[in-house]
């Protein structure tokens, strides 16, 4: 495996960053997780637009034009000779001094790792996932806006730890007002009386690329999707619940906080959308 580091390719085992990198010291940076299906990078431009928006919001200058970075990602995939892969694109503020001030960080690090990811076994997709809600709250959008995919993922990591301790595969964060925001690394949808609902970004969710792909598929398949805040109660009484994310793709949820969702098996809309999604990524490639 080859890792792209600021225009150079370094062997995976030899790819290292400085302990003075503010990405390491303070989580000062941003990232994207992107999938490659059958040699095509899925919605690369959308991921890059989100990356550059995250960068603008935290005042980090990515030292490449979006077209150049796009080219580099495609090249890194090619160099690693993987048809199906997961890309981790990281931009950190770079090496600086032992203080918060980033003004001495003159050399942002742009890193592209091409590897593989498998979040859940196929069995989990067939049976559905058991999840919980956890005490960790999603940042309210005034501090560090959850729309920024920053290297500060401690909130999300705590959620994952809380899920692990409860012996479940994923957990949901609520926002400060008690509305359901998202999972540790995925967005949530529910289906009620044939209509799909997903929390709007302002509730405190990252506007996922997979979420958007599902919304596009809904439109093509005649489903109505409403971006609307909802509570845990709405989740418990939904007809279907599923999560979406680059790593998880589309995964049914069959139990939340001990409440079985409907009859406890992946529902027809979820199954239909998972099938459509798999087709979209494999047949249409970059669509
Ligand atoms: N929410 C969070 C906090 C995430 O980290 C991710 C993963 O990227 C998502 C949602 C899902 O977004 P996407 O579909 O773009 O992977």
Automatic annotation (TrEMBL):
Q: Which SUPFAM superfamilies does the protein's record reference? A: D-aminoacid aminotransferase-like PLP-dependent enzymes (SSF56752)
Signal peptide bounds: none
Pathway membership: Amino-acid biosynthesis; L-leucine biosynthesis; L-leucine from 3-methyl-2-oxobutanoate: step 4/4; Amino-acid biosynthesis; L-isoleucine biosynthesis; L-isoleucine from 2-oxobutanoate: step 4/4; Amino-acid biosynthesis; L-valine biosynthesis; L-valine from pyruvate: step 4/4
The record's catalysed reaction(s) read:
L-isoleucine + 2-oxoglutarate = (S)-3-methyl-2-oxopentanoate + L-glutamate; L-leucine + 2-oxoglutarate = 4-methyl-2-oxopentanoate + L-glutamate; L-valine + 2-oxoglutarate = 3-methyl-2-oxobutanoate + L-glutamate
The entry's keywords = Amino-acid biosynthesis, Aminotransferase, Branched-chain amino acid biosynthesis, Pyridoxal phosphate, Transferase
Q: Which Pfam families match?
A: Aminotran_4
Question: From the UniProt record, which GO molecular function terms apply?
Answer: branched-chain-amino-acid transaminase activity
Q: Which NCBIfam families match?
A: ilvE_I, PRK08320.1
Its function, per the record, reads: Acts on leucine, isoleucine and valine.
What the record says about family reads: Belongs to the class-IV pyridoxal-phosphate-dependent aminotransferase family.
For this entry, the protein name equals Branched-chain-amino-acid aminotransferase
This chain's source organism reads: Desmospora profundinema
What does the record give as the organism's lineage? Answer: Bacteria, Bacillati, Bacillota, Bacilli, Bacillales
